[in-house]
Write a structure and sequence with these properties.
Largest sheet: 8 strands, mixed
Distance between the termini: 42 Å
CATH topology of the largest domain: Rossmann fold
CATH superfamily of the largest domain: CDP-glycerol glycerophosphotransferase, N-terminal domain
CATH class of the largest domain: Alpha Beta
Number of strands: 17
Length: 417
């Protein structure tokens, strides 16, 4: 892995070479995979991978639960990064479910024989669907940050802009379905992946079903608090910043530092008696800062954290759109707004007019805003109508119905326009 990372960093400075290496790697790895793992597809078999095997979560987990409920005899395979991973341990005991270590022989065999391959982030370069096999790309959130072909700033540390665009075009070519929760996301997917809408199923995000179902279930939320060791009588803040393309260490990869771990903010939360959960981005090395923050960066199900929290502090993370479903206060801590817009990938929306939440540029503004917390500051009906129009707790049912050909669910395929 260290060699691979070093090569990627080197190639990022040479766009044409980066593109050529990715193209050749894809070509030869596909040949290897095709001839090494030939064989027929097994019917009613499902393969799931979430965040490159870091855990079992997000829309793949929601769809897995739906498969277990509606197709109990189906065989399921989960890609997990290590045997001591909590998800590996938990899923190994489940009926008709087998865990495979990512990039192992068992992993490649599962990819070669399963009928449905379900991911929530970019898939392996060597992968290409066979006859009677479908690759379903759920993605992992409503984008605010620009993606793929929409990025114009060529300063990512592990890929050139040309290499990134090739990777996104390849993803569009290989996947049979892309899942979208709204017309807005559909538009972003079409431009980011440089594709038309024929592969897009605009049905809602399966991962958000839990937010709708358990929104008012206090007993469910209290059980989560107990599992996390949180005082159920204290106010809980979820601080979930995204990563920055420029915050990169060759030794430790992308970093996620807690910008609220300061004397002023620590005094504020201690005086108020608040609990603050720190959630770094999934592929960063998260530093939660002072021990007063509860580091939940490696906690599997982020829906649990959203459900138990009383308000959200974020920045450019897609989490803000999911959080709208809970109709709780949202604060955007944009301490680096000018730099982020000019020196990193940029955003799709006018953040002053098209994004929900109170914008704050320094910790004093944030503290003042938190002291006057009110959910009335957001028109949830308007924003949810735009960003979450299909979220009714049944998105997983619709998606599974569409991809398996069971038309009892409602399919909304978006054609090219």
């Amino acid at each position: 892995m260290k060699i691979k990372k070093t090569v990627r960093i080197f190639l990022s400075d040479y766009p044409f070479l980066d593109y050529a290496v990715r193209y050749l790697y894809t070509f030869f790895s596909r040949l290897w995979f095709y001839f090494r793992y030939r064989g027929k597809i097994d019917e009613n078999t499902f393969f799931f991978e979430s965040f490159q095997g870091r855990n079992a979560s997000d829309s793949p987990l929601a769809l897995y639960k739906e498969v277990r409920k509606r197709m109990p005899d189906a065989s399921c395979f989960w890609a997990i990064d290590a045997e001591d991973n909590d998800s590996f341990i938990a899923l190994s005991a489940a009926k008709n479910t087998q865990c495979v270590i990512r990039n192992s022989t068992s992993y490649f065999m599962a990819l070669a024989k399963c009928q449905y391959l379900i991911f929530n982030s970019r898939t392996p370069f060597f992968l290409k669907s066979k006859k009677n096999q479908s690759i379903i790309q759920c993605w992992h959130g409503t984008p605010l940050k620009k993606l793929g072909h929409d990025i114009t700033c060529d300063n990512q540390p592990t890929a050139s802009l040309m290499g990134t665009r090739y990777a996104y075009s390849l993803e569009a070519e290989k996947c049979d379905y892309f899942i979208s929760p709204s017309p807005y996301v559909t538009k972003c997917l079409k431009s980011a992946f440089a594709m038309n809408g024929e592969k897009i199923l605009e049905l809602g995000y399966p991962r958000n079903d839990e937010l709708v179902i358990y929104k008012e279930d206090q007993a469910y939320k209290n059980n989560i608090k107990q599992k996390l060791g949180l005082d159920k009588n204290k106010k809980i803040i979820l601080y979930a910043p995204t990563y920055r393309d420029t915050d990169y260490s060759k030794k430790e990869a992308f970093l996620s530092n807690n910008k609220l771990s300061t004397e002023t903010f620590l005094k504020f939360i201690r005086d108020k008696g608040y609990i603050v959960l720190f959630r770094g981005h999934y592929f960063t090395k998260a530093n939660s800062g002072d021990k007063s923050f509860v580091n939940v960066s490696r906690y599997g199900n982020i829906n649990d954290l959203m459900l138990v929290s009383d308000l959200l502090i974020t920045d450019y993370s897609s989490l803000m759109f999911d959080y709208l479903l809970l109709e709780k206060p949202i604060f955007l801590y944009l301490y680096d707004r000018e730099k982020y817009f000019k020196e990193t990938r940029g955003v799709y929306l006018n953040i002053d007019e098209e994004v929900a939440g109170k914008i704050c540029y320094d910790e004093q503004q944030l503290i003042m805003a938190l002291n006057s917390t009110s959910s009335d500051m957001i028109n949830f009906c308007t924003f949810n109508k735009r960003y979450n129009p299909y979220e009714d707790g049944h998105s997983a049912t619709r998606v599974l119905s569409c991809v398996t050909g069971n038309v009892t669910g409602c399919c909304r395929s978006v054609l090219n326009n």
